[in-house]
Specification:
The protein is α+β, with helices and mostly antiparallel strands. It has 5 helices and 11 strands. It is globular. It starts with a helix and ends with a helix. The N terminus and C terminus are likely disordered.
Length: 180
C-alpha cells in the first residue's frame, strides 16, 4: 500500500469507530488514525463506511485521463480492511465515484455516464454481497439541468430520506485543473 492510500483515509477513522451511533445521527469524531487496505496499492479517495460498519467503499484516483471506479473492502478491525475489488454492476467507462449508502443497502454515487443525454450525474442502486443491482438515475429535482452544471459529491442519510449533494459548474472545475 502506498503512503497516499494511508493518508487519504486518515481523516475518516472517526466513522469507523462510531458503530451503532452511525445509524443514530451525528457523533463526535475521535483522533484520526491511518487506515490500511490490505491487497490494494492504488490511491483510495472519497471513502465511505457502510452503516453497519462491515464495508469500506472508495474510488481510485479521479484526475483527467485516469479511469475512476468504485471499489470496496471488508472490515478486519477499526483500522484494517481487506480489499475485495470493484463493485460489480456499478462501474462504467465514465468516472464513477463518491459512494454513499443508507442502512438498507441503497447505494448512491456520482457518474457522468449519461450526462450528454440526460444531464444527470446522480445515480443509485441496491448493494448486496459484492454487487450492485437496479442501477438508475436518482429521480426528482436533484439535477440543475443547465449546461455545464453537474453534481460532484453526494451523501445519503442513514434512514435514506435525505440526499445531500454538491453542484459545480464544469468551467470552474476546468479552471481549477488548469491551475494545478
Amino acid at each position: 500500500m502506498t503512503r497516499r492510500t494511508v493518508i487519504a483515509l486518515c481523516g475518516f477513522l472517526g466513522l469507523l469507530t462510531l458503530g451503532d451511533a452511525a445509524l443514530a445521527g451525528p457523533a463526535d469524531f475521535e483522533t484520526p488514525q491511518p487506515v490500511v487496505i490490505s491487497g490494494y496499492s492504488g490511491q483510495a479517495m472519497q471513502p465511505f463506511i457502510s452503516r453497519d460498519g462491515k464495508y469500506l467503499f472508495f474510488n481510485d484516483r479521479n484526475r483527467p485521463g485516469d479511469g475512476t471506479d468504485i471499489y470496496f473492502a471488508t472490515k478486519v478491525d477499526d483500522t484494517h480492511f481487506t480489499f475485495v475489488g470493484a463493485l460489480k454492476g456499478l462501474n462504467s467507462t465514465a468516472v464513477d465515484d463518491s459512494a454513499s449508502m443508507d442502512k438498507d443497502g441503497n447505494i448512491y454515487f456520482i457518474s457522468p455516464r449519461d450526462y450528454q443525454r440526460s444531464e444527470d450525474t446522480l445515480w443509485q442502486g441496491k448493494f448486496a454481497d459484492d454487487a450492485v443491482t437496479d442501477v438508475a438515475h436518482v429521480e426528482g429535482d436533484a439535477q440543475k439541468r443547465q449546461p455545464q452544471w453537474i453534481n460532484i459529491d453526494d451523501e445519503i442519510s442513514a434512514d435514506g430520506q435525505t440526499l445531500y449533494f454538491t453542484e459545480n459548474h464544469l468551467g470552474l472545475i476546468d479552471r481549477k485543473l488548469e491551475s494545478s
